[in-house]
Specification:
By secondary structure, this protein is mainly alpha-helical. It has one domain. Helix content is about 50%, strand content about 10%. It has four helices and two strands; from the N terminus they run αβαβαα. A two-stranded parallel ribbon has the order 1-2. Helix 2 links the parallel strand 1 and strand 2. The longest helix has 11 residues. The mean pLDDT is about 95.
Length: about 80
Amino acid sequence: MCSVHDTIEFEKRGIPATVVITQAFRNAAVFQFKGKGMEGHPYIELPHPISNLKPEEMKEVTLRFVEQTVKQLIA
């Protein structure tokens, strides 16, 4: 998961970052954060699957996670 790696690299540079994944990738994200010394790093977990959602459905899902995303980035 390159997005976890990118999040870690940003954080190492003092730039707040998070990663958005779906539930299917939870274990991979947790494993990679732990392996890179950032166990417990927060992430945004969307329901799975999302690839079949219509644009308006994806917008609805996305809006449910805006507050959580902002909180992670300003913490």
